[in-house]
Design a protein that fits this description.
Blueprint (H helix, E strand, L loop, with lengths): L15 E5 L5 E6 L4 E5 L3 E4 L3 E7 L9 H12 L6 E7 L5 E6 L4 E7 L6 E4 L4 E5 L3 E6 L3 H6 L5 E6 L3 E7 L2 E14 L3 E5 L2 E7 L3 H6 L5 E14 L3 H11 L8 H15 L2
Antiparallel strand pairs: 1-2, 2-7, 3-6, 3-10, 4-7, 5-6, 8-13, 9-12, 9-15, 10-13, 11-12, 14-17, 15-17, 16-17
Length: 271
């Protein structure tokens, strides 16, 4: 396998995998000797003997990057709320070995063949689970003012780049939409990922009465262009909101003021 590329980045390792389960899924990745998969810290569920893991700065997509280059790349991940570090799992045994990763909340694990998606996809900031070594994990700022002020989580997104497999996690059920010079309006919390060719902005959901009493959030994500959009039916913010509503009174320790602040935060987030 050719590990080099014209821009200094290595080609992605070729992975075999199996997604196990229905709603509380894990992905089991099979590694040939010498192959590596990278994952978010804490995502590993189990691994077979012969696989070793190491926590590193950065994703390892550019072997020529120095310490400061790796620190800069890892530092950008902090803006998405993720750790500075990624864990690298390498098969140092003589035969095939398996390692499995589990998502942190109920939903679906979606395998993405980046080569077939044009080499890049943009996803919500906490969607990345694991990927073949050589995948570049970066952030993508939305430059639209509307998305910046009112998009909540959608303002800072993750960009996955490479020519191999990456795995993302979405809440609830995943829905794939193929747009052909079309526009789709989505609740901001339900947007999971979209490919190049799709532009993203935020618009008001409707009139004042709809915003206050409609229960759909004040803003909607507008997705326009040609490409693929992945939607999730149950974002983690809705799960958290449901748990808080059913928690015993005073369980959060903040009383009525916390409830009011939480409601205002969800209004801005679109949930």
């Amino acid at each position: 396998m050719d590990n080099g590329s014209g821009d200094g980045r290595q080609r992605c390792h070729e992975l075999d995998y199996e997604v196990i389960g229905n709603d509380l899924q894990i992905v089991e990745v099979e590694l040939d000797p010498g192959e590596t998969v990278i994952a978010e810290a804490g995502a590993m569920n189990y691994m077979e003997e012969g696989i070793v893991f190491e926590t590193k700065l950065g994703d390892g997509s550019d072997p020529q990057a120095g310490f400061f280059g790796k620190m800069f790349g890892a530092g950008k991940r902090v803006l998405t709320g993720e750790s500075l570090f990624l864990t690298h799992f390498t098969n140092q045994g003589r035969g095939k070995r398996r390692v499995a990763f589990a998502a942190p909340y109920p939903g679906k694990i979606v395998p993405l063949d980046l080569a077939r998606l044009g080499g890049s996809i943009i996803c919500q900031k906490d969607a990345f689970l694991c990927a073949a070594l050589g995948t570049k994990i970066d952030i993508a700022f939305n430059r639209r003012l509307g998305a910046g002020f009112f998009g909540g989580e959608g303002f800072i997104l993750q960009r996955l780049q490479g020519d191999g497999l990456a795995f993302v996690h979405v809440g609830g059920t995943v829905v794939q939409k193929k747009l052909r010079d079309e526009t789709l309006l989505v609740d901001t919390g339900c947007l999971a990922a979209f490919t190049a060719g799709i532009s993203y902005d935020i618009q008001l959901a409707g009139g004042l009465k709809s915003m206050v009493f409609g229960g759909e959030g004040a803003f909607l994500a507008t997705l326009s262009g040609t490409g693929i959009v992945l939607l999730q039916s149950l974002p983690i913010s809705r799960i958290a909101d449901t748990i808080l509503r059913h928690a015993p009174s005073g369980a959060t320790g903040g009383g009525q003021s916390d409830s009011l602040l939480g409601s205002l935060g969800r209004l801005v987030d679109g949930d």
